[in-house]
Specification:
Elements (H helix, E strand, L loop, with lengths): L19 E3 L2 E4 L5 E5 L21 E7 L12 E3 L7 E5 L3 E2 L3 E4 L6 E8 L8 E3 L2 E3 L6 E2 L9 H5 L15 E4 L5 E11 L2 E10 L4 E4 L3 E3 L4 E6 L13 E7 L6 E5 L2 E2 L24 E4 L5 E8 L2 E2 L5 E10 L9 E9 L2 E11 L3 E7 L4 E8 L8 E7 L3 E3 L26 E2 L2 E5 L1 E2 L4 H4 L2 E2 L5 E8 L12 E10 L2
Parallel strand pairs: 9-13, 17-37, 34-35
Antiparallel strand pairs: 1-2, 2-31, 3-4, 4-9, 5-8, 6-7, 6-14, 8-9, 10-11, 12-13, 14-15, 16-18, 18-33, 19-20, 19-36, 21-32, 22-23, 23-25, 24-31, 25-28, 26-27, 26-29, 29-30, 36-37
């Protein structure tokens, strides 16, 4: 059973002098500012797996703000919010709020800023209590921007600490407690007196799910099962072992079997599972796609923000090159670029290089007309690719810019689909041995006889509405065992 919450999602850019709507798009004469909530630790706009519902009360929300006009210094990483450019960034849940929030630019001269909101639950609530393992959320209302060198514990708890720029941007997080069962989180940035951007998402408890991986097992194999309950995550670096009860018709006392979340990423945004090999391979639906004349390479070009390119606005041109035959993403990309408008060569860029194969180039057009971007010297060859597009009098910004599907979903295990969260995958796998003698206590194997039914039981202590928040229920599954 899956419990789905309602979504409240707003993107608001206020500019009374120049904002108008055109169909499903917004048209701005001033530089557009956009915000996304991402379920993954994205450091690039096109890498964001957007999510505005389905968070848990101890989850993390990765936030991106595209604001090229606040890229003050092209040679350093800029900041917005507390101690940075623009006005305050305010993060709120229904239970807490913080204005001591600063977002860091994802790199020099990107104009893209990121921050992390960590929902911490309430410390009084027990989410698991079995086999001597009791787990509670952190349940605090504070931020951890400071490295602690200039702060007393009381100052940290009272949000009186001065921000210290010493850690990874993924660790400069605002921590807010959340109430029980369901709620929401909102991030608001007042860029200046005329422009405010707001985004919201919801979270909720959900009913746990547990099942054996097969309907029938034999006595010569491990019995395996899977538990899903994202509410167990207590928002900490430790991946706790949670224990579930397992018993059979012949062994009513049974044994307790540990399960544990799968980690989703490290702080450098790489998956930690040895079983998964993520390759950049799938193009964006909005890309301009062309092959080199000899078919050796296939290049994808797209821009952020999306929509129709307009005059007097900064754009980030994204470029990836894949193998022409296999469509596999190529790293260590070298290339050159020519930028043309109405038959006039505006700029030539030589000896460009992108180690990870994802290149980003900034462009700006002062006049309308027909633009061309010509890629040259691709991987130090004579190959050229020409892309043509129109530059409009005004930028027409897509209100929601589609994700570039560079990380191919099909390379993820099927069991991970739609179960990815900020730090973990909501897949808790368990396994145990079975025996036909009386040694189950000493070997931690479940005693069975021919044709026994085996049961697994999980006590769900975080129930969604309309259940009472202080109740718990038993969730069970069963399978059968035969002698082989």
């Amino acid at each position: 059973m899956v419990i789905v919450g309602f979504v409240f999602s707003i993107v608001s850019v206020i500019d009374d002098a120049s904002a108008s709507t055109a169909g499903n798009s917004n048209t701005y004469k001033t530089p557009g500012i956009m915000m996304k909530f991402c379920q993954n630790p994205a450091m690039a706009w096109n890498e964001c797996d957007e999510r505005y519902e389905g968070y848990t009360w101890t989850d993390r929300v990765n936030v991106l703000i595209y604001a090229p006009g606040w890229n003050e210094d092209s040679d350093k990483i800029d900041y917005i919010g507390n101690g940075g450019n623009g006005g305050e960034i305010t993060v709120t849940t229904r239970e807490a709020s913080s204005k001591m929030v600063a977002f860091a630019e994802t790199g020099t001269d990107t104009g893209l800023f990121m921050g992390v909101v960590k929902l911490t639950g309430q410390m009084s609530k027990v989410v698991h209590d079995s086999n001597g393992i009791q787990v509670k959320p952190m349940g605090m209302n504070m931020d951890n921007y400071s490295d602690g060198a200039d702060c007393t514990p009381m100052q940290i708890m009272m949000n009186m600490c001065v921000m210290g720029i010493t850690n990874s941007a993924h660790d400069w997080a605002v921590k807010l407690k959340t109430n029980q069962q369901d709620g929401g989180v909102t991030v608001s940035w007042e860029a200046n007196e005329d422009i405010t951007v707001v985004q919201s998402a919801t979270w909720n408890w959900r009913l746990g799910e547990i099942s054996f991986d097969k309907e029938v097992f034999t006595t010569d194999e491990l019995v395996t099962f899977t538990l899903h309950d994202a509410d167990l995550w207590n928002h900490h670096a430790i991946f706790y072992k949670y224990f579930v009860n397992v018993w059979s018709d012949s062994d009513s006392a049974g044994i307790q079997v540990p399960v544990m979340f799968e980690p989703n990423h490290s702080h450098v945004a790489t998956l930690e599972s040895d079983a998964v090999d993520i390759q950049l391979s799938e193009p964006a639906s909005s890309s301009l796609t062309k092959y080199t004349p000899d078919g050796a390479y296939k290049a994808y070009l797209w821009w952020q923000p999306g929509g129709v390119i307009g005059i007097d606005k900064d754009y980030s041109i994204n470029l990836m090159v894949h193998d022409g035959l296999t469509d596999v993403h190529q790293t260590k990309l070298s290339y050159g670029m020519e930028i043309w408008l109405n038959g006039e060569l505006l700029e030539t860029r030589s000896d460009r290089f992108a180690s990870d194969g994802h290149a980003v180039e900034s462009v700006y057009f002062e006049e309308r007309g027909t633009a061309k971007i010509i890629l040259t010297n691709i991987f130090d060859t004579d190959s050229k690719i020409t892309y043509s597009f129109q530059v409009a009098p005004e930028a027409i910004i897509k209100e929601v810019v589609g994700k570039h599907a560079a990380f191919k979903d099909s390379n993820l295990p099927d069991s991970w689909k739609d179960r990815q969260h900020g730090h973990y995958i909501d897949v808790l796998n368990g396994q145990f041995s079975i025996t036909m003698d009386d040694s189950s206590k000493s070997t931690n194997a479940l005693r069975v006889n021919e044709g026994d039914t085996i049961y697994v039981e999980y006590i769900d202590m975080t129930l969604p509405a309309p259940y009472a928040h202080n109740k718990e229920i038993e969730i069970k599954a069963n399978t059968f065992v035969f002698v082989k």
